[in-house]
Amino acid sequence: MEKLIGKKIVIAGSRKTEEMSVLIEKQGGTPLVRPLQGLLYFDESVIQNELLFCVQQHVDWFIFTTGIGTETLLEGADRLGIRADLIDVIQAANVAARGYKTYAFLKKLNIKPDVVDEDGTTHGLFNGFASIDLKGKQVVVQLHGELQPELVHFLEDRGAQVIQLLPYRHIEPETTVLETLSLELITGEVDAVCFTTAVQVRYLFDYARRTGEVERILQAFSNRARAVAIGKVTAEALRKEGVARMVVPETERMGAMIIELVKHYEELSS
């Protein structure tokens, strides 16, 4: 039985949209691609300077927040001819990791983190540092796509000297896409929005704040539209914006996200 029949499901990501569309169509739904991720641009010169700093200076802690960002750093180090040196420095330092993908990538490098998050979120990572003295420590934080001021402030408030590694940066998505999705939500034209990263949430609500439509967007998510988050970090971003009702799969996979949405509608109809 096709469980999403008659439903219009928005895909807010910009990657693997064809695969997600097929998953939605197999369940009878109509996929609408509204990429809120924006583009990424790579700053080669910045990452070179930062990586050289890491291998030339003493580092007490490395904090890795995404698996793909960690892999990007090592690829940059490889181009500089310092990949082995960087891995040696990381192995000699204390290491913290957020997210299972990050943990899995570090495991391939035979690096076991000293601190891991409790629940896949940044706040879970904070709890891991609760009893650790960071005063005067040199802490390198790997970021991907955007800055993480909350994490940086947490570390600096505990006395750490923070160096941020941000090789990729997001560029805001097209205004027409934001405008279209905002209107579709407000007018009740879509049934669900699948968010695959936290930055997609922030771009939508930043636009809503600029246009004075935050309350109407929140009302849409509390009435007809379902906010679907691929994982805990994305769900955390939705909660921060005031979205109380959402669908979140146990497994952070696109397929699991669509199946969880199907189960949600099944429960509503039973």
Write the layout of secondary structure elements.
Blueprint: E1 8-11, H1 17-26, E2 30-33, E3 39-42, H2 44-56, E4 61-64, H3 67-80, H4 83-92, E5 94-97, H5 100-108, E6 115-116, H6 122-128, E7 138-142, H7 149-157, E8 161-165, E9 168-171, H8 175-186, E10 192-195, H9 198-211, H10 214-222, E11 226-229, H11 232-240, E12 246-247, H12 254-269
Give helix % range: 40-55%
What's the pLDDT, averaged over the residues? 89
Shape: elongated
Regions with pLDDT < 50 over 5+ consecutive residues? none
Major beta sheet summary: 5 strands, parallel
Radius of gyration: 20 Å
Please report which band the strand proportion falls in: under 5%, 5-15%, 15-25%, 25-35%, 35-45% or over 45%. Answer: 15-25%
In summary, what is this structure?
49% of the residues lie in helices and 17% in strands.
Description:
The chain is elongated and about 60 Å long. With 270 residues, it is of the alpha/beta class. Strands 2-1-10-11-12 form a five-stranded parallel β-sheet, with helices on both faces. Strands 6-5-4-7-8 form a five-stranded parallel β-sheet, with helices on both faces. A two-stranded antiparallel ribbon has the order 3-9. The mean pLDDT is 89. It has helices spanning 17-26, 44-56, 67-80, 83-92, 100-108, 122-128, 149-157, 175-186, 198-211, 214-222, 232-240, 254-269, and strands at residues 8-11, 30-33, 39-42, 61-64, 94-97, 115-116, 138-142, 161-165, 168-171, 192-195, 226-229, 246-247. The longest helix is centred in the C-terminal third of the chain and has 16 residues, at 254-269.
